[in-house]
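Blinded run. Sample ID left blank on purpose so nobody reads anything into the name before looking at the predicted structure. Input follows.
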Amino acid sequence: MPTFKQTSSRAEAAAKIAANPAAFKVCEGCDSIIGSATAICPNCHSFRFDATAAQVIRQARLLGSREQTSVTANDLS
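Blinded prediction complete.
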């Protein structure tokens, strides 16, 4: 069960992403949000992305409103 701090931190990160969608893109392989300069998704190694502002904002709001369900590289270290 996520703590309030974890949920709050995800919401804060999502708000920062939604405020500057041009700096991010959504991976079409795993739906992660990554920096716009990234060439290959660090989570699933996909190279297909949706960089439209509407999709970045939509995905940020979705991910910021719920607990983390995916495994990231940080989880494995």
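Unblinding after everyone has recorded impressions. Strands lie at 24-27, 33-35, 49-50.
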